[in-house]
Input
Amino acid sequence: MLVLVSWLLLPFNHSDYHCLDGCACSQMLRTTIKQLAEDMLPYSSIQRCHRAFLINIRQIDRVESHSASFMLIMKYCLTGIPVSKSYLNQIKEIIRNPGNKEC
Output
């Protein structure tokens, strides 16, 4: 399922996500974002970029810098997804060297 998702927001076990077909969806999940991120380890295109967001790195359209913060603009929905400082170096490395991760 998640490989067909552009981004996933999961605060408090409630999920909002945007599918590649343009559908924006919402549903209750019985998991935490930490557990979901661990479950997605075999799918290297799904990466955590924030405490509440998982993204499909194949769906990043561009990166925007706003003073000290970064936003990922996703394809098809043009939604800005925040990148937290703790995940910034990891996301930058993936964007610089997309061939290093098998998607």
User: Anything to note?
Assistant: The helical segments are 33-39, 85-96. DSSP finds two helices and eight strands in the chain. The radius of gyration is 13 Å.
